[in-house]
Backbone:
């Protein structure tokens, strides 16, 4: 039995959480879910988007499946997602995007894995007014230590998974200190991995290359903001945000979530595609050594994607979150 913290999250979170826990149970995963609240729900209920007992549970069990959490734009509270990644030192945000069977998209051989630095960059929340409402500034932090950790994790992943190329994405031509340091660390760490081909690309060129010829990319490593943007782009290459899972991994804790957010535009309508969150849960099962169950569920997903009458509208289906969930269970 595995003890795992479960945070259903906001918006479509509860619907896709129901779906994923149902499928995992049906597949025979022995998990003791420890449910806790965070985000908008927690803010409304207890006045704190990240309640102490939620954080304590995460620190104690060190393993979590987390639904999307809404972060209000402008005033309100700071991102709980960013706080959790920082608090638990989950420095690798790993976001695979792979062409799926029976899904229509412009490309048919995308198979890339993005490593997004998850603890610093422009996401540290050091923003301030120089002059209220007319002049703002924001600070980005890049350290050798955090850069080494994420870049080494990406190289190590490439080596362990029989991948051959690592592309480091930066903007070192303009951001000479921050991105310059990240790139320099990349060249240093690359010396430890002579078996992996190393290249670097400036982020604007990368954006163009990804939409023109995404098949050329294998493992990618980049800073926090670029990784955030390019991983949504990568999802778009293979059929949308409903299809890409993600893992946040540190040296002693891991938290699994989808790339997408709380999708308020479709929340509560039985329309959300649970595949992305389900793929995150499969990354979690693999992380805890339940590879056989993960493989069974993956095969059931592939089979289900062939029947558009049970799939959700975002991937051209005429079904719902519930019909998809039932079909995956039937296909196990
Ligand atoms: P979003 O990712 O929630 O939605 C973008 C678009 O993709 C929407 O049209 C949505 O309907 C669609 N979409 C997303 N997931 C889907 C799914 N599973 N099935 C079908 N369609 C799906 O991005 P948005 O609207 O910019 O952000 C909404 C909220 O989510 C914001 O408060 C944001 O801060 C938060 N967010 C949270 C994340 C997290 O918890 N890790 C990540 C990204 C955003
Ligand atoms: Mg994002």
Residues:
């Amino acid at each position: 039995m595995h003890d795992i913290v479960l945070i259903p999250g906001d918006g479509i979170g509860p619907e896709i959480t129901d779906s994923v826990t149902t499928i995992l149970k049906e597949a025979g995963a022995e998990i003791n879910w420890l449910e806790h609240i965070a985000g908008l729900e927690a803010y409304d209920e207890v006045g704190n988007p990240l309640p102490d007992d939620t954080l304590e549970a995460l620190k104690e069990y060190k393993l979590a499946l987390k639904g999307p959490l809404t972060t209000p734009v402008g005033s309100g509270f700071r991102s709980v997602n960013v706080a959790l990644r920082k608090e638990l030192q989950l420095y690798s945000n790993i976001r695979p995007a792979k062409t799926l069977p029976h899904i229509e998209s412009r490309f048919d051989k995308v198979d890339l894995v993005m490593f997004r630095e998850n603890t610093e960059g422009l996401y540290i929340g050091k923003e301030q007014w120089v002059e209220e409402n007319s002049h703002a500034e924001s600070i980005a932090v890049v350290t050798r230590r955090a850069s080494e950790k994420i870049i080494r994790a990406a190289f190590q992943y490439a080596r362990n998974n029989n991948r051959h190329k690592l592309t480091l994405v930066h903007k070192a031509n303009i951001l000479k200190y921050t991105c310059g340091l990240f790139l320099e660390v990349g060249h240093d760490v690359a010396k430890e991995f002579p078996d992996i081909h190393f290249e670097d690309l400036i982020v604007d060129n990368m954006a163009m290359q990804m939409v023109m010829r995404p098949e050329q990319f294998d493992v990618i490593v980049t800073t926090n903001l670029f990784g955030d943007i390019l991983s949504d782009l990568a999802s778009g290459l293979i059929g949308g945000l409903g299809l890409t899972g993600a893992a946040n991994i540190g040296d002693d804790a891991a938290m699994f979530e989808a790339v997408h957010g709380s999708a308020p535009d479709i929340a509560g309508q039985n329309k959300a595609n649970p595949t992305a969150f389900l793929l995150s849960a499969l990354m979690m099962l693999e992380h805890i050594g339940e590879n056989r169950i993960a493989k069974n569920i993956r095969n059931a997903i592939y089979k289900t994607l062939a029947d558009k009458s049970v799939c959700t509208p975002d991937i051209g289906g005429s079904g719902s979150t519930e019909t998809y969930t039932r079909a995956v269970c039937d296909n196990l």
In short: The two ends are 21 Å apart (CA to CA). The first helix runs from residue 13 to 26. The chain is about 40% helix and 20% strand. The mean pLDDT is 97.
